[in-house]
């Protein structure tokens, strides 16, 4: 029963966690299935049922085209049942209507392929618009960096910066963001405060302020040691194992040295300090050569500015470009992570199942609206990518059947389809059980 002991506190408020898991999953599934539905409709294929969820129907309505729209009691998926289908997976069909042009199996190959591919593509489109919307909403820091607001810091850190200050240099090095930011801060000495050259009300001056990258918690990785210990965004790490930390790099150095040993943290929050003990967990970290490596991490994120910068609007074109880059980055990292697990560079604890995803949903929701919306975008891309895997029962498997039909001029036989679908179901079921085992038993 040890896994239950680990599971219960990590869930925290189970109702809160499940609520946001259902919200995230329902949005992603609805968009995915709507992709199938609308492209099928455009292609001349009639949909009998559009369902969000499985099982007992709790609400339904029929539109003017004769499609039944419904919400079912089990909100862990959904489907579109097209005319002539014998089941929601569009495998097999009703012999009385299968040959009709408005059925899934009787439509031209191009129409069927477009309809199948539309589900994952709509997941990518959802991610694209979310990332684009966030960029348009948040804007980007103006140059030179200008302080809009400052977080609180322990009194031991000298703080003379003020909102409205334009930061020109830190310790004599230009603080160009984002291109030159990391280069500028990498050689800053590790000490409680550093010298800033600023422009304030048109006058240049030198003031003291926190490190450009202090040990300030800007984000919390879901299901990490920091998440389990209830660290919060805005916390400042004062020391680790009695060693004072001033830069975020100090924290990384100490964690790398201790590896998987417990670390005592002194944390400053809202003008008070408290002590907590965390044990770093191995996380898959991309390396310079494109591989991944398991490294000990607390799950504390800090890679940007410790203050809220003044921003300017991002143009539509620039936001579209950056959103596409973000979706492509997630796809590449997901595929690379899977490859690294297969070849053994990183452990399989990096694969989460529904329990882990639910826990992550709740954690991201607790970090704020934008964090949760960003999580939906990331998860939507992952769902779209997973559905393109060439596994029977997934959309990618159907596309493989269509490719076979394009090459041979005929569909696989019903017997072959049944066998392949059974294999696909077994593969997905095994993967799901393995992921749930990770969530509950092996990597709680």
From TrEMBL:
Please list the residue ranges annotated as the PDZ domain.
Answer: 193-245
Give UniProt keywords alphabetically. Hydrolase, Membrane, Metal-binding, Metalloprotease, Protease, Transmembrane, Transmembrane helix, Zinc
InterPro entries for this protein: PDZ, PDZ_6, PDZ_sf, Pept_M50_Zn, Peptidase_M50
The principal location of this protein is: membrane
One GO term under biological process is: proteolysis
GO-annotated cellular components: membrane
Q: Looking at the keywords, is Transmembrane helix present?
A: yes
Q: Which NCBIfam families match?
A: RIP metalloprotease RseP
What name does UniProt use for this protein? Answer: Zinc metalloprotease
